[in-house]
Amino acid sequence: MPAAARPPTWRASPLVLAGGLLALAAVAGLGLASLAALLWQAPALSVGDLWREPWLAGILRFTLWQATLSTGLSVGLAIPVALALARRPRFPGRRLLLRAMELSLVIPTLIALFGLVAVHGRQGWAAPLWEWLTATRADYLYGLSGIVLAHVFYNLPLSARLMLQALETAPAAHWRLTAQLGLSRGAIWRTLEWPRLRALLPRLGALVFTLCFTSFAIVMTLGGGPRSTTLEVALYQALKFDHDLALAALLALTQLTLCLSLWLVALTRGGTPRLVPDAGSGLPGGRWWRRDALGLSRLHDALWLLGLTLLLVPPLAAVTLAGFYGLPELPGRGSLWPAALRSLAMALGAGGLSLLLALALLAGAEALRRRGSRLAALVMEGSGQLILVIPALVLGTGLFLLLRPSLGAGWHGYALVVLVNGFMALPFAMQVLRGAIPGLSAPEERLAEQFGIHGRARLRWLVWPRLRRPAALALAYAMTLSLGDFSVIALFGSPAAPTLPMLLFQQLGGYRWQGAAATALVLLLAVVLVFSLLDALSRRRPRYPFRP
Predict the structure, then answer these.
(1) CA-CA distances (angstroms) from residue 106 to 129, 413, 467, 473?
(2) What is the mean pLDDT of residues 116-123?
(3) What is the Cβ-side half-sphere exposure of residue 66, based on CA atoms within 13 angstroms?
(4) What's this model's pTM, rounded to 2 decimal places?
(5) CA distances in angstroms from 305 to 75, 106, 148, 156, 504, listed in the order given
(6) Which residues, in sequence order, are CB contacts of 156 under 8 Å at separation 6+?
(7) Lowest CB count within 10 Å: 210, 219, 427, 533, which one?
């Protein structure tokens, strides 16, 4: 069959395209409309205040400095960690360590903060060692050093995991050739490892910088005072306490301009990191394929892997142990279980919304590509990344201003939180789903046409088997990100009816450590159970498995 007569993958391509256009209108329209509503309500906007006002200039400098420092340390230290993991495909605890690294993608911020305080706080596990080594009090967790430490805790495992997946895509034939040629460690780095990492660094660096630049709960908890205020925290203060829409609009535009400029540069360079665990093809076993894994490199790699373990495991272990000590208080915590049910219900709504938007945008973009409209497809697919650079507080406040005449109290605020969280998880869901959306190959399409497989049958037997696991992982990421959200719920939530993150923050602020430990353990278990359950359901083999 000639290429011009080749049937499309989806017979309902007009409906798919209509769904993509509707999702594009919802994402771009609400995102830009929320920003426009904030600007419209601002009585005056003075851009010059950014450098004329010492307070604003100091906030901007500190935000840029902490984000740059956090990004440099997270990405820079992730390189030797990823190389060590690639050189050591088999060692005791490797699989568990990789699972802990993947958990850092979805662990709620307040849980990580609770664990970091338990380990590195003034009364933490590491305090006696620090006082013995430096003869000073262990105050390093608060201020710039604490913010950077928390950002490294989050972003170093993420960066190393994505780098490891890029390294594992190297064909086994390349490693056989390096073994036959007897290439040195430096030659392997120049010819095999660095080219794969270099293609990943621009977008990975932009992603980590954006996450650190827009960090809210970490800075708010560990900032230690006005000197450690960032744009996101100042934006929250302007909206929540000062009701200064002009200042909030100025801070939002500044943050949007800086992050968007960085992403425009990053999108023109390098490849896209994948957020699918175990995406790499894996490397063959044996010493023959890694000559640089012998000798002193064993000690070098062991030190890096030990450092990664000491960074990740103690805070997670502290949360688990403290939570077990707080378990006797659970029966007396009447607000804990309603908060857990409220959080799960909101996470399910936000995750479902994010999954539907991601599927509609990617499927619509694929339909446009099949029609020959590549630029329109790029715009539709890229609209999902716009949310990444719009602050969640700006999105929520703008939507509140737009819907204010029809908004009431109670569930209206939580519905707004679900909407904002669904939009904020959209970029991560799209990263997981992107590789599963392209249609069938030409031979598969011809065979489906010959057997008359159309409509629901094609969706059930040909599309769904390849979409099943990425869709479950995308839903898991979106739900767990919503479960741990604090920035939006802090602005629109009710202290009388808190979610788990808000309840945890209230308990930490009131120094109710045992209750906070129990809440943190419940939140951590909810995240792990949601992710594990959806992952297990997606791994169940269908009745007639798909074989490409």
Answers:
(1) 30, 24, 21, 11
(2) 87
(3) 30
(4) 0.80
(5) 15, 21, 20, 12, 32
(6) 73, 74, 77, 78, 81, 308, 311
(7) 533
